[in-house]
Amino acid sequence: MSTGQGHDEVQELLAAAALEILDGAEQQQVLTHVSACSECPRLLDQYRKVVATIALQLPGRPVHPDRAAALRARLLGRVQAHRMAPARRRSWIERQGGWMVAAALAGLLLVHHSVHRPLAYGWLAAGVLILALVALGAYVRVIRARLSALQHFHPDTERMPPGS
Known about the structure:
By secondary structure, this protein is mainly α. The chain has helices at 7-19, 24-36, 40-57, 65-84, 92-116, 121-153. The protein starts with 6 loop residues before the first helix and ends in an 11-residue tail after the last helix.
């Protein structure tokens, strides 16, 4: 963990800090942030209460040291994988929403203008074309979602040659 972690990064580590599975430096940095933050002490306390509740529900048998080491390694691996995961990719609607609104407003303006100037049918044609483009964009989005769902349920479809 680099020095100067942000609030969001520390919040992601609070559960691991409550379990005390972070290494010494990371645990100390999280605790330092918690002592200076107004929100994180409450969250860390809640995580610690959950850990204590879980500990009370577990049977009183000691865990074999090899198994405990394997569990710790899995938990640390998950924390590292989550930390290294790329940022969430914005959906198509989030990325293109502004352009879609602009195209819709332009289409509305063109259609409105064609009603008040009936001889200027070019504006009407342009408006219809813009609406057709918006509909085409929505159709492409639906097809991409279907393809993504198919690839999610059938991962082998990614390796199939085109046209199969």
